[in-house]
Amino acid sequence: MQRYFIQKKQITQSTIQMTKEDSHHIKNVMRMKIGEKVTCCDDSQTYLCEIKTFEPVVLLSIIETYDENNETTVRVLIAHGLVRREKTEEVIRRLTELGCSEYVPIILHRSMVKPMDEKSSRWQIIIKEASEQAHRTHKMVLHSTQTLKQLVEQTKDFDLRLFADPSMGLSSLKQVMSMKQFKAIAVIIGPEGGLEPSECQFLIESGFVGVHLGKRILRTETAPLYVMSAIAYHYGDQDEN
Amino acid sequence: MQRYFIQKKQITQSTIQMTKEDSHHIKNVMRMKIGEKVTCCDDSQTYLCEIKTFEPVVLLSIIETYDENNETTVRVLIAHGLVRREKTEEVIRRLTELGCSEYVPIILHRSMVKPMDEKSSRWQIIIKEASEQAHRTHKMVLHSTQTLKQLVEQTKDFDLRLFADPSMGLSSLKQVMSMKQFKAIAVIIGPEGGLEPSECQFLIESGFVGVHLGKRILRTETAPLYVMSAIAYHYGDQDEN
Question: What number of C-beta contacts closer than 8 Å exist between A and B?
């Protein structure tokens, strides 16, 4: 069933007022009719709804409210060195599908592009669409662009903090992940050319662990997908049968 | 170091004659000089080489021949329902990086595109480039487009044969993978809209096992990346320390 992420403020008693964009999607893209059903999700609960009216925006009546959890059992933050816009967009879309909890673009020595926070509203749209399509129950959180220092501060409460580096990573991702059950994992992935030795050194001093991702050299836009897939595979999902 | 996949017939005693395309790459893209070193790989051995001459094509002299293995410990065949050209190309590129052994485009009921074997020389170039960049020691094998029936026949000697389906997959990929150590794994992934019930039924009767890939719905071009990442993570690499 078609799913839409909404904000709590769109709900009034048993009615949900859709945004202009989602109204357009329901009417003109999906060509749905009055009486048809959609699912809404506000990052805490899921609502089975029926289409009531189309004008001026779509109004839904809530038929049933329920708890649902389609997320992995572990909180995962991926911090990714700034890369070209199209690559960042693809990484954001796929990480959302794969169940990543939080994404942070970071400024590293070898980042070839400038901070792109002006793009963040476009990225939010990608995240909303990918979350809906993937049937997530929580949208991936997009943080604003940070320096390595800010990221170290930001991830203080994570019980596993990693950076991926083919040469500094003495252990594999699997070896480190198999040590114990973690609650929150943060992973830093460099831009093209990777992290600089001084950045690795700073991260080690800040309590991060270097891991390698196997013997093959993954491109900067493939590495986050491998890491998120591996973690999702390792931990499985909430409420799994 | 820059790596090039070559064919055995390019080697004469201790000299390797590069193709026109790779000569162009060495001279004009990498702008390398006489005496500089590159690595060549012929799907069985690795050669450390030095550039000897540029004209009419680049000649390399072999300094050292050695065995190297940057592959996963398990043979993985991914069969993917035909999807749009750009998506297929991206999947082929990333699966090559992630260590996939064999790729088969397959014709399924919901495939929206026609067989694209005329594209296969373009796909071979993508595989060669991605194998070189990822430092693989064996190129991913690209099979010609097959029907489901041909694929069943083709994968007879695999000791684990799976298809991904959110509804028919009663077990997760991890549950099935954890049963024992497998030598060769084949996984079928549907096109947009997935496999048809009759296709799932045929696969079950042919000895395939349906698995789900978690609670999130992955797009047809994301699912192969998740599966390959998970298998590579689960099995690790040959010669791993």
Answer: 102
